[in-house]
Amino acid sequence: MSTLYITHESFEQHDTGPYHPESPDRIRSVARALDQSVFSSLLREEAPRASAEAIARAHPGAYLESLLAAIPEDGLRNIDADTVISPGSGEAMLRAAGAMVRAVDAVAAKEVERAFCAVRPPGHHAESLRPMGFCLVNNVAVGAFHARAAHKLERVAVIDFDVHHGNGTQEIFWNDSKAFYASTHQYPFYPGTGGRNERGAHNNVVNVPLAAGSGPAAFRTGISDEILPALSEFKPDFIFISAGFDAHKDDPLAQLRLTETDFAWATAAIMDVAKKVCGGRVVSVLEGGYNLDALADCVTAHVETLSSRP
User: Fold this and answer.
1) In this predicted structure, what is the pLDDT of residue 33?
2) How many domains does the structure of the chain reveal?
3) Catalytic residues
């Protein structure tokens, strides 16, 4: 079986303005990286739109309707100081969530073993009732709840190595006894959450805060000693990766000191647990990463590992 790569041209139409770090150039950089000959065996699909029903599992009530109503007919609109929407944002956010739905379906049906969704806008800061931090819909939560609803894969886990804590995913999972969330992130830092004392209502949240300037040793120790044992004990039916690459040493928005080698190592370690506990079911989705060269290198290492690990 192969690895599925899902993306869509609409992700370039989510315009955030000329100086915004979460720019269309990010998805172009990823596309160029995955067009290399080493990735010729990747299966490639365009992301479909997610249904309102799929999104409502993570964002109840009128959330989606109100967000779509806010999309401007022209120009840019700020939802908050960091989060910008434009005429193309509605289509992009529907297809970003839809990429996860399709990836889950493909992996659950054993069409492929793993999948990587290269999407914009990112998702892990979006809370159940609030978009924020560049994020509109929590893509990874939509995927996790779709695995449960459509495929009866009840126990879902998200491992998040973005440099920013995924407050949205944590909030959505907080009271769910069959959902596990673990994160490595710079702390204290935006968005202000992610302390070790934040454990979730059922003790299924594991936060590994890293001080500014931390490098590979602290990152790898946190994953090996804290996250992986808890993940193995939880025994998920499906594992998701919130794959943010802004903990790279060259990223302009943070101060951790990782390289693409560290992300490849983390990917392999997560996959090893997946092989033992859930038949290898892994879906990864792009979150942050704002140095374009570093982003391309990290995605290359991440997807090579997804594709080549037995």
Assistant:
1) 98
2) 1
3) 125
